[in-house]
Amino acid sequence: MDIIKINASLANAARYDILRWLKDPEKNFPPHKEVSGFGDGVCVSFIKDKSGLSQSTISHYLNMMENAQLVIATRIGKWTYYKRNEAMLAAYFKALQKDI
């Protein structure tokens, strides 16, 4: 786990918001048409629409968050879905409690 990389990912309001939204996708995003439920995560286009940011910015942010292991990407057909990596978040919070 790279705590500095995770902190850098969370040091942006939009990326922080994305992680918060993904905590409760049913509340924060409309239902998918291509897949049932949110078991595989939320489609990038929904995240883009909710954030109001450009596709390239959202892709960059999600890539950064994936590299920090905060989110897990799942490709289904031509779409990519993102969900929180709850195991990594729990380990991160535990490390922060221990170290700081």
What does this structure look like?
The model has no long low-confidence stretch (mean pLDDT 92). The chain has a single domain (3-99), classed as Arc Repressor Mutant, subunit A (Orthogonal Bundle), CATH 1.10.10.10. The chain has helices at 3-10, 13-23, 25-28, 44-51, 55-67, 86-99; strands at residues 42-43, 71-76, 79-84. The longest helix has 14 residues, at 86-99. Helices cover 58% and strands 14% of the residues. The chain is globular. The relative contact order is 0.20. Helix 1 (3-10) packs antiparallel against helix 5. It has a three-stranded antiparallel sheet. It has 100 residues and is α+β, with helices and mostly antiparallel strands. It starts with a helix and ends with a helix. The protein contains six helices and three strands; from the N terminus they run αααβααββα.
**In order across it, which strands form the biggest sheet?**
1-3-2
* CATH superfamily descriptor: Winged helix-like DNA-binding domain superfamily/Winged helix DNA-binding domain
The name of the CATH architecture is Orthogonal Bundle
Counted beta strands: 3
Ends distance: 16 Å
Classification by helices and strands: alpha+beta
CA-based gyration radius: 13 Å
Strand composition percent? 5-15%
**What fold name goes in the CATH topology slot?**
Arc Repressor Mutant, subunit A
